[in-house]
Amino acid sequence: MSSVHFPVYILLILLTTAVTIPLISNRFKNSLKEYIMAAFVVSWVLSFTTLNHVMKNGSYTYSFGNWSQKIGIQFLVDEFSSFMTLIILTVAFLVIIYSLKDMEHEIKDYQFSSYYTLIFLLLFSMIGLTVTNDMFNMYVFMEILSITSCGIISIKHKKDNFLASMRYLILSAIGSLSVLLGIALLYMVTGQLNMFEVSSVISQTWQSYPTNILVSLGFMVSGLAIKAAVFPLHIWLPDAHSSAPTPSSALLSGLVVKVYIFTVAKILFRIIGVEIVAALGIPTYLTYFAALGMIMGSVFAIGQKDIKRMLAYSSVAQIGYIFMGLGLATVQGFSAALFHIVSHALLKTALFLSAGSIIYQKDKRDLRDLNGIGYEMPITMMVFTIAAFGMIGIPGINGFMSKIYLSLAVIDVKKYVYLVIILVSSFLNAMYYLPIIIAAFLKESKDRKNIMVMDKLPRSMIYPMVIVALGCILMGFFPQLIMNVIDKAVPSFLLLGK
Amino acid sequence: MDDLIVKTITRLIIPFIQLYGIFIILHGHLSPGGGFSGGAILGASIVLYSLSFGLEKASKKLSHETSSIIETAGILWYIVLGLVGIFMRGFFLTNRGAGFPMGEAGGVISSGMIALITLGIGAKVASTMITLFHTIIKED
Amino acid sequence: MELIISIIEHINYIAAAALFVIGLYTVLTHSNLLKKVIGINIMETSIFLFFVSIGYVSGGSSPIITLGEKQIFINPVPSALILTGIVVAVSITAYSLSLIIRLHETYGTIDMDEIMALRGEKS
Amino acid sequence: MKKIFFMIVLAGLLVLLITSVMEMPGIGSIDNPAYNEVTRYYVENAVKDSNAPNIIAAIITDYRAFDTLGETTVLFTSIAAVISVLSLGHHHKEHNNTDEKVEKHHG
Q1: Do A16 and B95 lie within an 8 Å CB cutoff?
Q2: Of A36, A127, C86, C91, which is least packed with CB atoms within 10 Å of its CB?
Q3: How high is the pLDDT of residue A116?
């Protein structure tokens, strides 16, 4: 039992849990929750050990069946992938604890086993997508991810959910097929599927097939841009993220979109390589779309009445920040993007969970009905306020630090226009988050006086929210905790094979 | 559909379809085919049965319980075969290095893990096809 | 003349590209959901054709080794990848069909435009 | 209008795709870069490594067996998703129907 196998064990535990949940829930209905939690704790511990191991001994590759990397499938367990695995598992763990109570409101009893099966398959595919180092394996995981992420939307049998997941499914099928076509074109040129091998072949031969590589890169990046909801291709996101049950929205918006961004980063920087990508001018276009998304996502969010829809549009804007960092194609830019991935995962989870709590207790989704709710649900609204301040960029919360890092990266490449865009986007964020907070704490509700009472929520819903909010503050005051890992992860990602 | 000719022909032809499916699965490592195609053929035989005899009777042949057990078992079987590789001091999904009985090249019982995995996949794909079909037509 | 020869040499790739575009056109312009799903299937098939054409070697036989003289085999990797691709395509189709069944149940139609019109009246 | 717009865009895409594939050697050419040492390794060593004459079977269940695990998982996922969408539970069917009716009425 050496720790080399741990990433595989994590995947296998998640998969085994997923496939056994239907059987367990038929026979031992009461122990389902304990079973889920046990699987989570074990895989979390394994993932933590892996990160420790990697930080101490450096990255390593895991080849299935001990074949060489040309002929077999390979996992790359480096600082980046093991750290992101830990983040995925941590956030998902908190969301799942929250979901145990919340889902009782959202779906029927007999659907529980399907829901958690889908959740575990979702985690399986996300972690697989993060650690895999093989192009076709990447596609397979991507398809599992797209089916499961539609599945956790349509689990709630409402009209909107079916329509939203149908649209999401069609668009993400187009996205995956574009990626597959891109893979086919790359395979045509290189004859390899392993990312390292592809990149070494391409760096020698890309001058002979420039159009082919450009077209394949275009297909792959635009396919993933659909899935990652980069601005003009985001049309599925607001419906999908707002109609889904709250835990699903938190997972989709906090993690799933991020995993697709990792994949974009892998394709751009690991498969093709920074120099070729920069020579083809892809990153510059990415920053244009990112800047557009940062502004337009916030503008759309201002007009929304539904709280979850507003949060969904805000995700579009935040994805713009991340792609801005990626598009700079520098070490600073990439580490700012990674930092923002982590901080946005926490912030959006906190926002969605607190919005879900409001829906759980008060059954209100309309922003205009939230007057005085801060006195009725103080803990929930405190969590919401912290996360919203993070989104706006108030110092002391992680959102501020990621904006600082991004601004520094922008200044470093002397593109001062983007600095203005970051500022404008922050102002726009403030325009739609602050009114909610003001309404919640300073306005009187129509039905009741503003007397402070405690939230009427189950404890298993309050604790995860509070932990996520504390995590945001911790990250805001001690960004070095995360940055230390990211600083190690980035060079291994950007400068591979040099 | 209540037609004598259809029912009789179905009853006659199903054993041959199933035999062919099993042949394809067992010869997966020797000839074109394998777990997926063989499993699809096996599944098609039950699909044919439920088309001509109705869903009620077909669900008795393969109940929802059984098929969900087969699906879970198919994946678990795959995982266990892979774990053998790890316990034999190799890597996940090692074939020859894990000491699977390799047999004689060209024989039906040969090629170690490949034949065993193909068997598991065949059973799983067959039951998947049937479950998908039954779940979807149950809606009418 | 050279162009024609080149087209004939690349006819499979061109057909795959054309099928991909036809599928994409079907998905994007038709409002009937079943047609959209069929469009996705056409796109999938086009990619399978593309992959298999990459692997073809003229005069090569299928990659099953028989005793006897040494032969040329086609490239087995794309065929193996396509097997996976087909299964994925089946899964996506099954799931989207089940969603269509549900949509038909709730809205009484499977036409995207009509569904949007129904929703527009409601709000 | 929408159709004409898409037609023009997709025609552009088609031209782009065709120009990119025209760069490559023709079909069946042995100079195809995809026919490289990896392919030769599979063809020459499949029987030696795994005793399976069917090279494709050797690839999908031995060399690249993890893909096939993913593939079976995709099948399992599709079943889980289809059941989650379609099944109404044996006892809940009527209850659920009335729910829907009430909702329609309100709408």
Answers
A1: no
A2: C86
A3: 92
Mark the ranges of chain A whose per-residue pLDDT is less than 70: 1, 447-450, 495-498
Chain B closest CA to D44's CA: distance in Å?
A: 14
Count how many residues are written for chain C. Answer: 123
Nearest by CB to B96, from D50, D66, D75: name it: D50
Render pLDDT for A142-159 as a digit per residue (tens, 0 to 9): 999 999 999 999 998 888
Average pLDDT over residues C75-97: 92
A63: enclosing H helix or E strand: strand A60-63
Q: What is the dihedral of CA A364, A367, A369, A370, to 10 degrees?
A: 90
Q: Which helix (H) or strand (E) holds A150?
A: helix A135-154
Please give the mean pLDDT across all residues of chain D: 80
Residue A154, Cβ density class (10 Å: 0-12 exposed, 13-18 middle, ≥19 buried): buried
Mutual angle of helices D65-86 and B64-87, in 10-degree steps? 150
| pLDDT grade for B123, boundaries at 50, 70 and 90 | very high
Q: ∠ at Cα A278 (A274, A279), nearest 5°?
A: 120
**Contact across the interface for A170 and C78, Cβ inside 8 Å:** no
- Computed over every residue of chain B, the mean pLDDT equals 88
Out of A166, A174, A180, the one facing C103 most closely (by C-beta) is A166
Burial of C1 (0-12, 13-18, 19+ CB in 10 A): exposed
pTM of the model: 0.94
Its ipTM equals 0.92
**Cα gap B9→D60, rounded to integer Å:** 36
Those residues whose C-beta lies under 8 Å from the C-beta of residue A362, and which sit 6 or more positions away, are A369, A373, A376, A377
Q: Which of A147, A159, A192 sits opposite D77 (nearest CB)?
A: A147
- CATH assignment at residue C61: 1.10.287.3510
Higher per-residue pLDDT: C60 or A122: A122
How many residues belong to chain B?
140
CA distance A202 to A307: 47
Between chains, do D51 and B132 touch, taking CB under 8 Å as contact? no
Which range marks the domain in which residue C19 is found?
2-122
Spatial CB neighbours of D101, under 8 Å, sequence gap ≥ 6: none
A444: left (phi over 0), alpha (psi -120 to 50) or beta: beta
- Residues with Cβ within 8 Å of A29's Cβ and at least 6 positions away in sequence, in order, are none
CA distance D97 to A422: 49
* Tens-place pLDDT, residues B73-114: 999 999 999 998 888 878 888 888 778 888 887 788 877 888
Q: Enumerate the domain spans of chain A.
A: 281-498
Per the CB < 8 A criterion, the answer to whether A289 and A219 are in contact is no
Is residue A211 classed as helix, strand or coil in its secondary structure? helix
Substitution target from A177, A198, A209 for chain C, most C beta carbons within 10 A: A177
State how far the Cα of D7 lies from the Cα of D5, in Å rounded to an integer. Answer: 5
